[in-house]
Amino acid sequence: MRLRAAVAFALVASALLAGCAGADQSGTPAEQMTTWVEGTSFGLTVRTMQQDAARAATVVSRGTPAEVRTACGVYLVDVEQANSVLPTPDSQASALLAQAYGSLGAAAHTCYAVPSSSTARATFAKQQASGLASLSEGTARVEAVLGKPLSKVGGNTEGASSAGGATGATP
Q1: Could you check whether the bond before residue 87 is cis, i.e. omega within 30 degrees of 0?
Q2: Which of 156, 161, 167, 164 lies closest to 142, judged by CA?
Q3: What span, in angstroms and rounded, lies between the C-alpha atoms of 132 and 128?
Q4: Count H helices, E strands: the chain?
Q5: What is the pLDDT of residues 92-149, one digit of tens each?
Q6: Distance from C-alpha of 7 to C-alpha of 33, rounded to nearest angstrom
Q7: By C-alpha distance, which of 171, 153, 64 is closest to 115?
Q8: Are 147 and 30 in contact (CB under 8 A)?
Q9: 3-state class of 153 per DSSP?
Q10: Residue 67 to residue 137: CA distance in whole angstroms
Q11: Which pTM does this prediction carry?
Q12: How far apart are CA 83 and CA 45, in angstroms?
């Protein structure tokens, strides 16, 4: 329980502290967002979050306790990495993505308790669904600022979009 609170605090604190980092960018909002998307490999991040969520859901439903721990650990590390590149140049996108990463991080923590608790399984599913919904909204906001889909930006963005795989239903 203490570990969950510490990670949740770290996720929120890093988002708040990083809020000052994007203030010096120049150019149009679309140019600033393009620079951020390319520099952070945001499309790859979206795909990774979607794949991790799908993998965790699959392993939680039929994996061994060791497989569950491994999937949860990878999931948590990837969520923390995604959170570390916030903020975006757009405060609304930043807020949505911070919310997404907070919920997905909570799901990754809850994931560890799933083998021994049916209540944890329900909580995990709820947290993950909330996180994926916020990730989809955040990605849609990024695309709105860009004025085009992530797949049109270049770099590690191919195949990522606000709708692509956001349910976490497929790996």
Answers
A1: yes
A2: 161
A3: 6
A4: 6, 0
A5: 999 999 999 999 999 999 999 988 888 999 999 999 999 999 999 999 999 999 999 9
A6: 27
A7: 64
A8: yes
A9: coil
A10: 30
A11: 0.78
A12: 10
Q: Do residues 4 and 120 make contact, with C-beta atoms less than 8 angstroms apart?
A: no
Rounded CA separation 10/7 (Å): 5
Write out the DSSP string of 55-111.
Answer: HHHHHHHH--HHHHHHHHHHHHHHHHHHHTT---SSHHHHHHHHHHHHHHHHHHHHH
Token duo for residue 98: 């911070």
Position of tokens 């965790």?
56
How far, in Å, CA of 100 to CA of 50, rounded?
11
Query: 127 and 106 in contact (C-beta within 8 Å)?
Result: yes
Distance CA 156, CA 107 (A): 25
Q: For residue 28, what are its two tokens?
A: 């149009």
